[in-house]
Write a structure and sequence with these properties.
Helices cover 42% and strands 16% of the residues. By secondary structure, the chain is an alpha/beta fold. The chain folds into 2 domains: 138 residues, Aspartate Aminotransferase, domain 1 (Alpha-Beta Complex); 199 residues, Type I PLP-dependent aspartate aminotransferase-like (Major domain) (Aspartate Aminotransferase, domain 2, 3-Layer(aba) Sandwich). The radius of gyration is 21 Å and the shape is globular. 50% of the residues are buried. The model has no long low-confidence stretch (mean pLDDT 97). It binds 4'-deoxy-4'-aminopyridoxal-5'-phosphate (PMP). The site of 4'-deoxy-4'-aminopyridoxal-5'-phosphate has 14 residues, from α4. Pathway: Cofactor biosynthesis; biotin biosynthesis. Its cofactor is pyridoxal 5'-phosphate. It comes from Melghirimyces algeriensis.
């Protein structure tokens, strides 16, 4: 179209490079297997860690909420969009996280943007891990605070940043709890100790840790037994929790402040009743069915060992996120295509989502995978990996 020639030009380049991707359509529900292009394939690309997207208790809660309260809320939270169930869910979430309060945002992305863009001013400094999620980066872009990026999980560099920024009103150190592309875990106890030494605040994004790490999936703060020592916990309700949304868990004063100043919260309509009711049911499932988290970790151990035994490079992952390193962008996409032919959906991840030269196929096992699913997937990886010379 006239006026968009410059976009067409860029897209042509992506096509030449082999990194252009049409969206993958799922023609079934989101389970351990999905239907893509009419073919039933093993799903290794979803964040549905515990299989909760299709859990009967979540579906029932959502249906009942629609019947009782309708499909939408018609307003932002601060005007006419706060239903009792929103507040009940937030209290339940705060109890679950062992914090004073919690506040739900439309997504994990907007939760990060909402916090970072609202609580810091030009008197403050935000100190962020180099591999933090895009929503943290964008939140930081929106603050007037000074910014310092420390080398990924490098505690010497973090200490240097804390020393260099002494004198700022507030220093906020931000880290992913589990890093989304590599599956490694932040050294949270060391971060907390440094922040206590230098009088800085700590914020952790547990998007990939909620429902995955800690007792009943309470997250990294629980995993490392750091309750009361991490000031802000952010996370998503869209991955292991199986529904949609983001949350901030922390002190009541933070919740109050965000309600009045976090722009994505103030200016965007609240979650439909079905979403909130299903999220509430998800917390009940986490509390009452701990075997789901146990199964997730059993599957994780089995799949990781299988990939290692085949000779794949899987980086520093310690969690259900296992990257299978390939290097070249086009090769990663080819590998993903071959796997699909073999009956496995594992998405290639390329620049700019990861650095150039670090393209990979990212796998995520879930509690819903059977041993047979994982054995079949490993056979597919072996065949495709050998065919492309990756192993
Ligand atoms: N933080 C991290 C670390 C994530 O991986 C994601 C999801 N990609 C988000 C935040 C955003 O969560 P949501 O999908 O709920 O917006």
């Amino acid at each position: 179209m006239k006026g968009f020639e410059y976009l067409e030009e860029e897209i042509r380049e992506w096509k030449e490079l082999g990194t252009y991707r049409p969206l993958t359509e799922l023609e079934s529900d989101q389970d351990s297997k999905v239907t893509i292009q009419g073919q039933r394939v093993i799903q290794l690309s979803s964040n549905n860690y515990l299989g909760l997207t299709t859990h009967p208790r979540l579906k029932k809660a959502a249906l009942e909420a629609v019947e009782k309260y309708g499909a939408g809320t018609g307003s932002v939270r601060t005007i006419a969009g706060t239903f009792s169930m929103h507040e009940e869910f937030e209290r339940k979430l705060a109890d679950f996280k062992h914090t004073e309060a919690a506040l739900v945002f439309q997504s994990g992305f907007t939760a990060n943007v909402g916090v970072l863009s609202s609580i810091l001013t030009d008197q403050d400094v935000v100190i962020s891990d180099a591999l933090n999620h895009a929503s943290i980066i964008d939140g930081i872009r929106l603050t007037k605070a000074g910014r310092r990026i420390y080398k990924h999980v490098d505690m010497d560099d973090l200490e240097k940043a804390l020393k260099e920024t002494e004198g700022a009103r507030t220093r906020l150190v931000v880290t992913d709890g589990v890093f989304s592309m590599d599956g490694d875990v932040a050294p949270l106890p060391d971060i907390v100790e440094l922040c206590e030494k230098y009088d800085a605040l700590v914020m952790v994004d547990d998007a990939h840790a909620s429902g995955v790490m800690g007792k009943n999936g309470r997250g990294t703060v629980d995993h490392f037994n750091l309750h009361g020592r991490v000031h802000i916990q952010v996370g998503t309700l869209s991955k292991a929790i199986g529904v949609l949304g983001g949350y901030v868990a922390g002190p009541s004063v933070l919740r109050d402040y965000l309600i009045h100043r976090a722009r994505p919260f103030l200016f965007s309509t609240s979650h439909p009743p079905a979403v909130t009711a299903a999220c509430k049911a998800a917390i009940d499932v986490l509390l009452e069915e701990p075997e789901l988290v146990e199964r997730l970790w059993e599957n994780t151990r089995m799949f990781k060992k299988g990939l290692h035994d085949l000779g794949f490079q899987t980086g520093k992952s310690e969690t259900p996120i296992t990257p299978v390193m390939v290097g070249d962008d086009a090769l990663a996409m080819k590998f993903s295509d071959e796997l699909l032919e073999e009956g496995v959906y594992a998405q290639g991840i390329v620049y700019p989502t990861v650095a150039k030269g670090e393209a990979r196929v990212r796998t995520i096992v879930t509690a819903g995978h059977s041993k047979e699913d994982l054995e079949r997937a490993l056979e597919a990886f072996a065949r495709a990996g050998r065919k492309l010379g990756i192993i």
